[in-house]
Amino acid sequence: MTKRDSDRYEIDPSDGLRREIVGGWSVDKHKRLKRYVDITRATRRKFDKSGSTYIDLYCGTGRLRIKSTGEVSDGSPLVAYRQSESDSPFSQIHIADVDSENLAACASRLEMAGAESVIAQSGPANETVSRICRRLHPSGLHLAFLDPYSIGALPFSVLQELGELRRMDLIVHVSEMDLQRNIIAMAQDGVLDRFAPGWERAVDLNQRNDVAKRQLLEYWRSLLSAMGYLVSDNIERVTGQKNQPLYWLVLASKNSLADKFWGQVSNVEPQMRLTF
Ligand SMILES: C[S@@+](CC[C@H](N)C(=O)[O-])C[C@H]1O[C@@H](n2cnc3c(N)ncnc32)[C@H](O)[C@@H]1O
Predict the structure, then answer these.
(1) 60 in ligand 1 pocket by Cβ < 6 Å?
(2) 22-51: per-residue pLDDT in tens?
(3) Rounded to the nearest whole angstrom, what is the distance from the C-alpha of residue 56 to the centroid of ligand 1?
(4) Predicted local distance difference test score (pLDDT) of residue 1
(5) Most exposed: 32, 49, 254, 265, by fewest CB within 10 Å?
(6) What spacing in Å lies between the alpha carbon of 146 and ligand 1's midpoint?
(7) Which atom of ligand 1 is nearest to the CA of 152?
(8) Which CATH number is 3-175+231-274 given?
(9) Is the Cβ atom of 175 under 6 angstroms away from ligand 1?
């Protein structure tokens, strides 16, 4: 492990595999995912022929330790799997990660937990997305959980490709912290062009950072709407202990029912909710 890796990862003594060391906010993200998988179980059962899939393009190691409390918990693919398996299992679970060690740890943990139909793809999301979408049933019900660390790892082309499927719900983690620190550099390096093509039409970088960030999020949201997505008004703004901006958690679906579900999933303080 490099120094950077050893700050972020450690070996879990219970299985000898890598686990990630994270901040407490990860718990919130997983609570919402768990609740969403739970609340959509009756819908999933209706897709017994064409199937229902869970897709996690930035799957991580499958296990985390929360730095401040020492609590060990499941990573997102395990959260989704365990929540679905008893009464409305996903017919396939697709995991991918650019880091092959993370991917291998996650795949092993899913297997040890009893998941059978797991398909693992190593590589950046902009490449794995095509390989995965080719294998999805066009009439199936799909949920993609997109949780990269950075804006640079979330090109809009990934969302476009997923969005070609008729029933592809998206839960997306957009790093506000990244934009807070780097929005100008991201504009110069072409990161914003990939994240939200055409952003210059809507974002004024001469404005205060919080205004420019908000304009960018609204524009990105409009790109999803142009693809036929209804983007929940309940965009959750998750902040850290010192109220520092961390990320926005966004639900997009082509079905208005999903928005209703998201309303039930969201259980945050009103000031953490951005209403458009
Ligand atoms: C925040 S972690 C994922 C945590 C996981 N979703 C969870 O909740 O347990 C982000 C993961 O994205 C991976 N990653 C970073 N850039 C990527 C890219 N361009 N494509 C795919 N994976 C990437 C990292 O290796 C890391 O495992």
Answers:
(1) yes
(2) 988 788 889 889 999 999 999 999 998 889
(3) 9
(4) 63
(5) 49
(6) 8
(7) 19
(8) 3.40.50.150
(9) no
Q: Is the pLDDT of residue 276 over 60?
A: no
- Check pocket membership of 149 for ligand 1, CB cut-off 6 A: yes
Pocket test for ligand 1, best of 27, 36, 59, 158 (most atoms within 8 A of CB): 59
Does the Cβ of 152 fall within 6 Å of ligand 1? no
Nearest 10 degrees: Cα torsion 213, 250, 73, 128:
-90
Measured distance CA(159)–CA(200) in Å, rounded:
20
Give the model's confidence band at 4: pLDDT under 50 very low, under 70 low, under 90 confident, else very high.
low
Torsions phi, psi for 247 (to 5 deg): -160, 165
The answer to whether the CB of 251 falls within 8 A of the CB of 168 is no
pLDDT of residue 260: 76
Choice between 241 and 134, residue whose per-residue pLDDT is larger? 134
Percent composition of the chain: helix, strand, coil (DSSP 3-state, to 5): 45, 25, 35
pTM above 0.85, yes or no: yes
Rounded CA separation 200/255 (Å): 30
Rounded distance from Cα 97 to ligand 1 centre (Å): 6
**DSSP category for residue 150:** S
